[in-house]
Amino acid sequence: MSTVVLNLPVELIERVCDFLKFNDLETISKACDKTMSFLQDQFYWKRRCEIDFKYTKTDVISNWKSQYIFLYGNTCIHCLEVTTNDNYFFGTTVCRLCERIFDRYATICKSDAIRLYRVKAEDLENLRYFMRRNSHNRRYPMKIFLKNDVSILAVQTVCSIASEKRKTRVIEHILRHESSTDISDLLKNLLRV
Ligand SMILES: [Zn+2]
């Protein structure tokens, strides 16, 4: 946090901190005595529990910072339902239902990525992935990619597809499936569609 902000009255610094994530607050708490004092205050964390997680239960909580850390690690960032599921690609707590609802979490296996987006296996090697058990063949787990990463790769490499028919099919696929993201704009720009 810049020294300009740290020179503000403590009440204002507190309001600025309301917009920061837990990890940043940990760093800032060491920045000066002002931040250190209110970040040790139970009331600050009680308020953050209310702001971030709509936590308004009246249980007797002896340590609100611990309660905040618990909610932070066990509450879906979208729907605020309790979950222990961490999204592999984003490292944030997201429940399985929200992972299915929000496009940004959509995943795709290696063979579908190659089949539908015509990306090369060697290019996929540069993308982040995790291994998932393959229910069809237990000996060979599947590589799972973030669909968004595959789309961007496909946009970057679509011009190198030699067959016009395949190229058109990939472009159509991207345009049909990526309407909610910036990717289709990127593609349209690239191809001047
Ligand atoms: Zn959720």
Description:
- The protein has 3 domains: 3-73, Monooxygenase (Up-down Bundle); 75-102, no CATH class; 106-191, no CATH class.
- It is mostly helical.
- Helix content is 52%, strand content 6%.
- Strands 1-3-2 form a 3-stranded antiparallel beta sheet.
- The structure holds zinc ion (ZN).
- Residues 76, 78-79, 81, 95, 97-98 line the site of zinc ion (ZN).
Question: How is the topology of this model organized?
Answer:
Blueprint: H1 3-6, H2 10-17, H3 22-28, H4 33-39, H5 42-53, H6 64-74, H7 96-101, E1 107-109, H8 110-117, H9 121-124, E2 129-132, E3 142-146, H10 147-157, H11 164-177, H12 183-191
Antiparallel strand pairs: 1-3, 2-3
Helix pairs in contact: 5-6, 10-12
Strand content: 5-15%
> Please, what is the average pLDDT?
85
Please tell me what the overall shape is.
Answer: elongated
Order of strands, main sheet, comes to: 1-3-2
Number of domains: 3
The residue fraction in helices comes out at 40-55%
**Tally of extended strands?**
3
